[in-house]
Amino acid sequence: MTWIKFALWMSGIYLMYYGGLICWDFLRSGKKTGVLQSHELSFEEHVEPLKELPDKAPEIYDASVLSSGGVSLKQLFNLAREEAIEFTRPVSF
Predict the structure, then answer these.
(1) Residue 38 lies in a domain
(2) Structural domains in the chain (count)
(3) Is residue 16 part of a domain?
(4) pTM for this one?
(5) Which of 61, 82, 60, 62 is nearest to 71 (CA)?
(6) What integer pLDDT is reported at residue 60 of this predicted model?
(7) Which domain holds residue 10?
(8) What Å distances lie between residue 22 and 26, 27, 58, CA to CA?
(9) Residue 35 pLDDT class (50, 70, 90 cuts)
(10) How confident is the model at residue 46 (pLDDT cuts 50, 70, 90)?
(11) In this structure, which of 17, 55, 77, 90 has its CB flanked by the most CB atoms within 10 Å?
(12) 23-33, pLDDT tens digit by residue?
């Protein structure tokens, strides 16, 4: 027996097995029972609309960026040298 024949036989057996399982599931689902079984969950939440806020004019600031929360890489290394930040691994300068 060659590998091709073996692979064909195995794929045929798997196709028959899984095809049989699919057919069995279809035959079982065709039977109607007295109790309707539903596996669907549904949730309804009562939501009241919020009152609308009046439109405000945008505030204009002098700086192009107020606060980004970040620093440049050079500033990060300077903060590490000054021990202003806590780092867990050594950083080569």
Answers:
(1) no
(2) 1
(3) yes
(4) 0.33
(5) 82
(6) 63
(7) 1-32
(8) 6, 9, 62
(9) low
(10) confident
(11) 77
(12) 999 888 876 55
